[in-house]
Amino acid sequence: MDIGKALPASKEGESQMIVMMGNNLYLTSITLNGEPSIEQIDKLTCLDEQAKISQVFDCEGLLLCILKEDSRFVVLNPYLGQTRWIEPRYSHRPYGCDRFSYALGYVNKESCRSYKLLRFIDYFYNVPEKQFFWYEIYDFDSDLWTTLDISPHWRIAFCNPGVSLKGNTYFCAAERNVDVKEVLANSLICFDFTSERFGPLLPLPFSGGYHDYTTLSCVREEKLALLLQHDESNPYELDLWITTKIETEEVLWSKFVRVATAGFDSYVPFIGGSFFIDEEKKVAIGFDDGDNRHKINIIGEAGYFRALDLVGDFGDQECKTDLCSYVPSLVEIKQPEGGEREQESELEKLRYDENMSRLVLLEGNQ
């Protein structure tokens, strides 16, 4: 399906989601009324057929796509058929692995939204001289990258993607001086795209350990959902919370679902990567975290579990899988203005040169 072609309206009891599989994106519907079912609507053909998508991030209907074999990024609006390509200032993929974290957000202005892209790399070690971090932001209006003057007191694992909510992005994080072997993430932190700053570390509603898997999701662009899957400290349990209040510097949580997976007869269902929830049905939906990565798990209370096969041609199912709920957007993607491009400041050139020198040294020591 070419982007820009009218997307089919959701039916009663049906939700739409974007599925990433085989390095491509697919618009997919899932129905939870009665016996759950899932169906591929169509493939989103927005890029050259050779382009392979390795990561996708949703920001209220706009999708930020990170490519596997191309250093550029692309932001697309499937509903309006608009794309914008973004060129990074440098690439860093040791052993072919993308070590960056990404986030797409916006600043509310009087007549429109001003979009920005956050990209950062953060190597946190117990030895201070080995630490390296570089936080930078791309402004859609100026078409420029800027290094952020940040000294993080937090750490965000690159395997913990952020979630966009009301223009800002929230990450699971931890205090920087806490041993990563003890805690991977036990706090929440918000990046505010208006101030271009991170807020304080906010409490999660539990005390998670290194072997506990936490991930975030957005609920109807109004609140956050938090998924905790216990591994060792409390084996085979899955908890879900949703926020009752969420701001840059304050968060309140309410328990949504607790699933005692020990009650399952044989197979213990887990969710890997992103997920989303259905508040009415009280279920979490996401890809299986085991050998059945092509299956969608639906997990709820009282031992409720369904594993749905993806029906249709989803390409190479051995590639990384991911999904996000999808609601079409009427927001237009601003394109770069013609004419002479705004120039970087001398301070920014200096910061860039210093960080590149340190990054080259870091790569040489790996």
From TrEMBL:
Q: Which domain of life is it from?
A: Eukaryota
A Pfam family annotated for this UniProt entry? FBA_1
Name under which the protein is recorded: F-box family protein
Listed transmembrane segments: none
The protein's matches in InterPro entries, at most eight in alphabetical order, are given as: A_thaliana_F-box (IPR050233), F-box-assoc_dom_typ1 (IPR006527), F-box-assoc_interact_dom (IPR017451)
Domain F-box associated beta-propeller type: where?
16-333
